[in-house]
Amino acid sequence: MPDHIKKQLLAEIEILEHELNHELPAEIKKAVAMGDLSENAEYHSAKQRQTFVDARLGQLKRRMAELSLVNLTNIPKDKVGFGSTIVVFDSTKDEEIVYRLVTSEESDVTKGLISTTSPIGRGLVGKRVGDVAVIVTPNGKRELEILKLTTIHDEAAQSDSSEGIAANNGKQ
After folding, report:
1. Which residue has the higher pLDDT, 149 or 40?
2. What fold characterizes domain 3-69?
3. Which CATH number describes the domain made up of 73-160?
4. What is the model's pTM?
5. 122-135: per-residue pLDDT in tens?
6. Which end of the chain is less congested by CB atoms within 10 angstroms, N or C?
């Protein structure tokens, strides 16, 4: 799991746990002290928020568990997978597009960051250079031919070799 995503999820969990364990109980206690709970808007609002925060915490903790199970060794070295950067030719739009497959928390279509769980992401996963992925979107079918693929492993190797070059240049 990318460190910045882990930090982002942990920060949200921490904030929500504080609200659930400290702020909301104080609000509920104050609302209860006002008397008649059947018509107490503050009480009902705090209880609804408590239910929402508890559900959101459950979601975040499940997502952390899912992301911690991602094993980079299981990501293919010659096919599209998580972390891949893909150059495709979209025959529908008659243009080349660059996508990077990321987690749903990182996705930003305007920057070419698409989730592995999005229709385009799911359609590209497992494909190789030269393959054509037929993607069904709300706007119709799109045919994306994979022109170039850089996997997460390729990027790690490039990063390692450029760091080695920089280290060797510093020794001269």
Report:
1. 149
2. Helix Hairpins (1.10.287)
3. 3.10.50.30
4. 0.59
5. 999 999 999 999 99
6. C
